[in-house]
Structure formats: structure tokens, C-alpha cells
Amino acid sequence: MANEINILWASMSGTAEDVAKNFETKASDMGFQTNLLELNDVSMNDLEKMQNVAIITSTTGVGDLPTNGDDFWLDLEKSDKNFSKVNYSVCALGDRSHEIFCGAGNKVNKKLIELGANQIIEIQECDGSDEGSDEWGNKFLNKIKS
Ligand SMILES: Cc1cc2nc3c(=O)[nH]c(=O)nc-3n(C[C@H](O)[C@H](O)[C@H](O)COP(=O)(O)O)c2cc1C
Fold it and tell me: Which pLDDT value is given to residue 76?
């Protein structure tokens, strides 16, 4: 459904979760139907059927996905599905003091590109907190509205 946005998130200590919830509010205020899900609750079969997907994830460990996103990553990493009908963008949270900056969001993004998904706006990397996520959200929503 063109009017539906799937907002998929993973977070360790709540920052990415807040970004996802704020994005959901913004999207529903603009008239979109929203579907807010933890990444681990999304199968590859589900993802294949989604038209508009906003992925918001922080990074933990050494470039790893949060625990509520790591099963999703294990599935995505070994997937060979064709996601060419999926319009998406990633908002990646991290901290430049770590060696693999925004590693989780970047590896999800890279794999989705490999599987043919349509990146509608560039990945947003947020350093230290959520800075840049609001602008990313506005850009994403305006893009799919048009
Ligand atoms: C144990 C731990 C490991 C982290 N590892 C990374 C990392 O490898 N790369 C990175 O860019 N940020 C890393 N970060 C920073 C977090 O991704 C960042 O603080 C983020 O805003 C946290 O969001 P969250 O509250 O949604 O989990 C790490 C933070 C912690 C506490």
C-alpha cells in the first residue's frame, strides 16, 4: 500500500527506539498509515512484501546490531531474495569514538543494496545521539509523498 510506512527499529538503550517513535508520529500526522516493528519481528518474507520501509538502528558491540535486531540481520545476511519492490532508507545511530562507526546501519544498508532494494534517500549516520534523524525523517516522508 503506497500510503503505508513500515518503521523497523532496533535499539539497546532507547535512543533509536525514540527516533522510531518520533518518526511514526510525524508520519501519521502527515496522513500515512504506520506499522512500527522491532527488526527481529520482521521475516524476509514480510520484508519482501513491504513497499515503504524506514529502518532505524543503533550499533552495539563492534559494529553489531542491537539484540532486538540481530536475528533479522542473521536472516538478511544470508538472504538471496530480490527486494527490488522495497523502497527504503536507513537511519544509523552510532558514535565516532568506536572503530566501526554506525556499523549496524551500514551493513544492513549495504546488503539491501546488494539485494536490489531501492534506496530512496541516502543513509543518515547519527554521531553520539540522534542528531540528523529529524531531517532524515522529513526527507524520507517528503520523498514518498511525492
Ligand atoms: C557497548 C556499546 C558498544 C557500541 N558499539 C558501537 C560501534 O561499534 N559503533 C558505533 O558507531 N557506535 C557504537 N556504540 C554507540 C551507540 O550506537 C550509540 O550510543 C547509540 O546512540 C545508542 O543508541 P541506542 O540507545 O538506541 O542503543 C556503542 C555503544 C555501546 C554502549
Answer: 98
Which residue has its alpha carbon closest to ligand 1 atom 10? Answer: 94
> So what CATH class is 4-145?
alpha beta
Buried-state track 39-62, b at ≥16 Cβ within 10 A, e below 16: bbebeeeebbebbbbbbbbbbbee
* Residues with a CB atom less than 6 Å from ligand 1: 11-16, 58-63, 66, 93-95, 98, 100-103, 129
For the chain, the domains span 4-145
Cα 78 to middle of ligand 1, angstroms: 24
Residue 110 confidence (pLDDT):
98
Q: What is the model's pLDDT at position 2?
A: 73
